[in-house]
Each structure stands twice: as C-alpha cells, then as structure tokens.
C-alpha cells in the first residue's frame, strides 16, 4: 500500500523560491574584487536570477548543458548557481588555483558552452582562450564599462546581459534526479574526475547540513562561507542559507586576515566556514592588533585536520570550533563534530581529544571500516582500516565514466584510513596513499604532522615515507619554521616522543622555506616525494 501524500520533486530552485517568499528582506552581502561591498535582498537576488535564467536561454543554453564559472564568492556567482540549475542546466565551478593545463582539460572534458569569470581573473582567462575554441562563449562578471576597461575583447558583459532581459519566468518542472552542478576532484591520481550532483542529492544535503547537530542554521544566523564556491559548492552553504533564510556574507577574493576581519566585524558574522590555514591568518591578525570578533559564535573547519593549538586559540575567544570531514564525492559533508550531551562530563583531556576527531555520522551517510581483505572492523577506537561510505549524496560514478566508482557491494572507498570509537566518533589517521608501513606496522603521517605542528618553532609539517632497507619504509619529517626559529632532529624527536610511539620517531629531518601547496591549499605530498625520494 502506498501513502497518499502529494509528490513534489526536490529541486534546487525551490530553495530560492522559499527565500524570496518567506525571507524577502534578508540580505546577501558581497565584497567585490575592487574592495567595494554591495547588498542585495533575497527578493532582489531572485529577480536577478530570473533575468539571468532568461539570459542563458537567450544564449541557447539547453537542459544538461554545462555552464562554467571562474569566480569568487559573490552574489553573481550565487545567481549562476540558481539560474543554471533552475532551467535544467549544470553549473560547473572551476578552481582558478589549478594549473592552466588542468583547467583546459576540465573545460574540454565537461564540454562547457559558456564560461562566466570575475574580471580580476582575466589574466588566467587569457591563458585559457584556446579552450573549446569556437564552441564556448565568455562572459565577464561586471558591467560593460568594467569589461571594456579591462580590455576584454569579445567577452559579453554580465550586467548588460541581465538588464536586457525580463525578470518574469516560470521555472520548468524538472526531474529531481537531473544534474544541477559539477565539480572536479583535485586529489586523485591522473586527470581530475567530475562529480555530477543531482537536485535531489543537493537539496537533501542542504536540509541535513542546516540541522542543529550540523551547521545549526536559521534566519537568525549570519553565515560567511570563506571556503570558495568552486570548492565543493562552498560546502553546500549557498543552498542551506536560502533554505533557512540565513543572512549570507560573501567575501569575494578578500581572503587575507585584514579583509576577513573587517567584513566579519561589519556584518556581525555568527558562523564562518573555512580551512585551517585561513583561520590561522585571521587569528594572527587579531592577536597582533589585540582585536576581537564579539558576534562570532562558531567556526566550521574542514579540508585538513584541526590541530590542538587552533582549537585552543578559538576557545580562548569564546568561539566554538566544529570540525567536519567530507570530500567532493560526498557533496561534501560526511561527519560533523558536535559534542554529545555527556561529552563535557568525560573530563577535560578526554573532551579535548574527542573534539579533535573528525566527528560523528549524520543522517544520510553510512560509514564502515574494512581491513585489506575487505572484512568489517569493529568500532572500538583502535581498529584502523579503510573508510567506506554510502548515502543519499554520495557519488556512485564519475562524470563520463561508465564503470561504477563503488565496491561490488555498493560502498564508496574514500581512500582514507580511520578508526571509529564506540560513541561513533570518526578519527582519520591517514590517506591510504600516505600511510607509512614500517616493519609491517602502520605509522600515521597525519598524527605525526599534528604532533610536530604543536612545537613552538614549527609553522607547517609534512611527513612522507622513504624507502628503508631494514623496515621497508620510515617517516621523513619535513618542516617550515616560524620567523627567526631554528630546530634540529634531536629537539624535534624529544618533542615528538611525548606525543607518539617511540618507533614512529623520524630518523631524518628536512627544513624547507615553503611547503608546496595544491589547488585547495593542502600540502602537495607528491612534490615532496619527487624532491626527497
């Protein structure tokens, strides 16, 4: 027997319609590339998005077409999210930090029909001019005067395109399984792989990410996604904010400590989301000038492991730190570290250790651990194995790849090594490709790095495995140091022995001027392997 309830597809456009109808005066604040700040209300955002949708239709965009963006976090990028999805097209976000060869490959692979770009990225656009030659049109995200001033010949001007179109549009009724956005991974071997999200998966992800045990959003929230909109759709915040009517603050390309502080202070941001390196720069700026952010209540951290020092610095300010883990293939949220009701009663040391874990599972994502033979492992907090996931917003296959991305029994192998305790808290110990097997036992490069970073002289730490005749592999510790500091192997080993088993201690240390970073700000370990192996 089937239920007798109405059936309505879960569509991204419904989030915009809700925001316009029930939160019309709520603000979207954008910092533009010229440093100016502009304000739009949700009702204005919806009107401009309909104009943009009519523009896309006038330019010949059809359902399923990929529309690319090379853009920062602004209201215009948000309009592209919703206009593309609303007419059945696919918003394809490009990471401007990738090498031009990779970007050209991704544009060609996705077969983009249009590319919208922020004008300050025009030097990069010039290098990509040959991509999809004759098959793709370019639109500068600005006025005709700004486009002309930047000498962008042959490019259309965004604001002029919008002003020429009506704001009246009846959104089409789409299949909720239709694609709405496309992101390419940057952490895989070989060419980047495309993850194609559906309306259904995106709306479900937004619903759960807004729950109290996740980002806890409401119309009272003032949310600033510092994580870029080209990085897994800014962790879903452009969708969750409209779903809840939260005020949305978009930082544009001003990601330095001073710019972020000023915008957060001015707009009274209550929740901000970003990777640890961003928050280090913000905290350093605050400390150097003895400043505070009285309205900031919570910081959502992902993309790299949270170290104890960063946690303690935020807690000293009265700011709650929420660590989360996910990946492009998970839309991206897989677990979130909200304390349980009894977490505070476990003792200060245990509570801090729990906070430094990646988090507990949320509804919609299942987790399992398996050993090298595929046998399930217990959740006992010590049995480490390969982390698998499955769920409503987990990728089943990659774009334009016929084969499944999953195991034969339907799980996605994340490439992470982890353990899960009896309370359900996940702790990543390494990437499968980074784990060091020494004398038949695993050494966690991640835990070694976090221990090294707790030393007062260390700015950044990376650990890679190097061949060893006796033990097969041993850890090599690579450091960058804070200004004016020095360190030697003996002193760092003395520090590390208080944090890790003695047989983990590195036999070799390399100090370098700067860590090689990938497109998402993570240490590029392959470069280190090529240099030191």
Overview of the molecule:
With 533 residues, this protein is an alpha/beta fold. Among the domains are: 13-254, Rossmann fold (3-Layer(aba) Sandwich); 436-532, GMP Synthetase, Chain A, domain 3. Helices cover 30% and strands 25% of the residues. The chain has 17 helices and 25 strands. A 13-stranded mixed beta sheet has the order 2-1-11-10-12-13-14-15-16-20-19-18-17, with helices on both faces. Strand 23 and strand 24 form a beta hairpin. Helix 11 (257-267) packs across helix 12. The protein is globular. 47% of the residues are buried.
Main attributes of the structure:
533 residues; 13-stranded mixed beta sheet; alpha/beta; 25% strand; single chain; 17 helices; Rossmann fold
Short description:
By secondary structure, the chain is α/β, with parallel strands linked by helices.
Distance between the termini: 64 Å
Kindly report the CATH topology of the domain at 13-254: Rossmann fold
CATH homologous superfamily of the domain at 13-254, by name?
A: ANL, N-terminal domain
Which strand order does the major sheet show?
2-1-11-10-12-13-14-15-16-20-19-18-17
**Rg computed from alpha carbons, rounded to a whole number of angstroms:** 23 Å
Q: What would the principal axes of the Cα set say about the shape?
A: globular
**Biggest sheet, in brief?**
13 strands, mixed
How many individual β-strands? 25
The helix content is: 25-40%
CATH architecture type of the domain at 13-254:
3-Layer(aba) Sandwich
Category by helix and strand content = alpha/beta
Sheet-strand content, in percent, reads 15-25%
Question: What is the class of the domain at 13-254 in the CATH system?
Answer: Alpha Beta
Could you list the spans in which at least 5 consecutive residues all have pLDDT below 50?
A: none
List the total number of helices.
17
């Amino acid at each position: 027997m089937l239920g007798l309830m109405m059936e309505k597809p879960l569509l991204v456009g419904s989030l915009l319609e809700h925001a316009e109808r029930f939160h019309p005066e709520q603000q979207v604040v954008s910092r533009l590339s010229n440093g100016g700040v502009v304000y739009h209300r949700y009702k204005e955002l919806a009107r401009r998005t309909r104009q943009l949708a009519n523009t896309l239709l006038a330019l010949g965009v059809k359902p399923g077409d990929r529309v690319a963006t090379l853009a920062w976090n602004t209201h215009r990028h948000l309009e592209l999210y919703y206009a593309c999805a609303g007419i059945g097209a696919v918003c394809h976000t490009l990471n401007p930090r990738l090498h031009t060869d990779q970007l050209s490959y991704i544009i060609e692979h996705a077969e983009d029909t249009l590319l919208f770009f922020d004008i300050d990225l025009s030097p990069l656009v010039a290098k990509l001019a040959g991509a999809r030659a004759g098959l793709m049109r370019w639109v500068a995200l600005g006025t005709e005067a700004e486009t002309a001033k930047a000498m962008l010949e042959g490019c259309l001007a965004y604001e002029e395109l919008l002003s020429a179109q009506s704001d009246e549009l009846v959104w089409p009724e789409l299949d909720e399984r239709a694609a709405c956005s496309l992101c390419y991974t940057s952490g895989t071997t070989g060419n980047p792989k495309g993850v194609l999200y559906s309306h259904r998966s995106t709306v479900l992800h937004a619903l759960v990410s807004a729950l109290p045990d996740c980002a806890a959003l409401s119309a009272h929230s003032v949310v600033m996604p510092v994580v870029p909109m080209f990085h897994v759709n800014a962790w879903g915040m452009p969708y969750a904010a409209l779903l809840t009517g939260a005020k949305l603050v978009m930082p544009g390309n001003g990601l330095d400590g001073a710019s972020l502080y000023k915008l957060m202070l001015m707009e009274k941001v209550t929740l901000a989301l970003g990777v640890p390196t961003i928050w280090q720069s913000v905290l350093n700026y605050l400390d150097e000038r003895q400043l505070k952010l009285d309205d900031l209540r919570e910081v959502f951290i992902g993309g790299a492991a949270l170290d104890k020092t960063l946690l303690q610095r935020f807690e000293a300010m009265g700011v709650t730190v929420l660590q989360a883990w996910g990946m492009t293939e998970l839309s991206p949220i897989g677990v979130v570290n909200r304390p349980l009701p009894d977490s505070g009663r476990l003792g200060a040391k245990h509570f801090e250790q729990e906070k430094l874990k990646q988090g507990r599972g949320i509804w919609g994502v299942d987790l399992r651990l398996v050993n090298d033979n595929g046998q399930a492992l217990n959740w006992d907090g010590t049995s480490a194995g390969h982390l698998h996931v499955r769920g409503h917003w987990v990728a089943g296959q990659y774009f334009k790849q016929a084969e499944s991305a999953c195991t034969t029994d339907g799980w996605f192998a994340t490439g992470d090594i982890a353990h899960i305790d009896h309370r359900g808290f996940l702790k990543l110990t390494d990437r499968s490709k980074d784990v060091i097997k020494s004398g038949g036992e695993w050494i966690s490069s991640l835990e070694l790095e976090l221990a090294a970073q707790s030393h007062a002289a260390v700015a950044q730490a990376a650990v890679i495995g190097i061949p060893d005749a006796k033990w097969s592999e041993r850890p090599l510790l690579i450091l960058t140091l804070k200004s004016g500091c020095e360190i030697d192997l003996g002193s760092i080993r003395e520090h590390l022995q208080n944090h890790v088993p003695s047989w983990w201690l590195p036999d070799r240390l390399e100090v370098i001027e700067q860590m090689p970073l990938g497109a998402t700000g993570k240490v590029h370990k392959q470069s280190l392997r090529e240099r030191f192996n």
